[in-house]
Amino acid sequence: MKIAIIADTHVGYPRFYEDSFTQAEAAFRDADSKADLILFLGDLYDTRVPSLQILGRTISFFRSLKTPIYAIHGNHERRSKGTLNPVGLLEKAGAIHHLNFSSAVFEKDGEKIFIAGMGNVPDDLAKAGLRRLSETVQIPGGTFSILMLHQSVKEFVFGEELLELDDLEKLGYSLILNGHIHVRKEALDGRFLIPGSTVITQLTKEETNPRGYYLYDTKEKKHQFIQIPCRKFLFEELEFRDAKLGGVQEKVGGIFADLRKENPDAIIKIRLKGTLEKGLRTSDVILAEDGSLFIDNKLNEHIIRSDLKAIRDMREKKLSVREMSEARIRDKLKGKITLFEPSELFEALSTGPEEALKYLQEKMKAS
Ligand SMILES: [Mn+2]
């Protein structure tokens, strides 16, 4: 049996609204022509309550496909317990099957596939979620079994208390499929697959890789990635050294014009790195963005980083606000004002203005 595995279409994604539809439709349409079964791994929609326009468009699209679709919902569609989410609504409209802490058996030409699904749960509840799933869903012996998830996994995402590949492997499924992570990944010798999103959402360098879906062959136990037509995404990095404002503007403008000329429809991201000339701040660099040009200004990042480091160091040393202020005042007044001792004045000020005045008067008398 051939199974298409699609994830994170984020239909209705405001930044690239039309792309989100056309690229989702391209993936499902292609899968419909090649697969016996389509599995969808969550975040079909970008929001938990999509507009009627978006719901209407997806319902008629899904009803035009002939291949059965089993889906789970993602974090973008998760709603409170007992309320209907948009993937559940699609099931009511007869367009797909929605699995959530439940399972189904799909049969075609005498071959049986067992499919279990767990819709997204918050990261800290994911391990408990898997335990609950194991209690409610029993994997039948001798059947090819698939688990569909939409979770963060420690090997690919930074975070605490996340599921690990080890936990997942122990569950005993033949194939584990995961959404949520928008970049294509595979592990456990091809028994764990993440197809990635069909639309660009994070504008990271990794997202310049092709978009698409996996086609899995249960006989050969092999997967293949099928690329879909997708709006081009270009990621450029420009390095500067002691740059002047005009220099940055000119260079960015020039590169952008060249890229745009070659790629009229592309999404373009330009990252600025390096240093500005003395006296300029990162925020002085103002460059116009638009719906398809994005600027990631990391100029003078080392200075920002060292400022942050200084703050962190101070925190680590557990200097109180008062100690920091005293140290600062002492530093600024060094050699200029010798009338008072900063820590003593600070002490007097924190008691009250009269005390501070009294302290200063005494110091003046003494000098
Ligand atoms: Mn997502």
How would you sum up this structure, described in words?
By secondary structure, the chain is of the alpha/beta class. The chain has three domains: 2-227, Purple Acid Phosphatase, chain A, domain 2, CATH 3.60.21.10; 233-302; 321-366, no CATH class. The chain is 34% helix and 22% strand. The chain is built from ten helices and 15 strands. The chain has helices spanning 17-34, 52-63, 86-92, 126-136, 165-170, 245-262, 301-316, 321-333, 342-351, 353-366, and strands at residues 2-6, 37-40, 69-71, 97-98, 102-108, 111-117, 144-149, 175-178, 185-187, 192-194, 212-217, 222-227, 233-243, 267-276, 293-297. The strands form three sheets. A six-stranded mixed β-sheet has the order 4-3-2-1-11-12, with helices on one face. Helix 6 links the parallel strand 13 and strand 14 (267-276). The chain is elongated, with a radius of gyration of 29 Å. The termini are far apart. Bound molecules: manganese (II) ion.
Features:
367 residues, alpha/beta, Purple Acid Phosphatase, chain A, domain 2, 3 domains, 6-stranded mixed sheet, 15 strands, 34% helix, binds manganese (II) ion
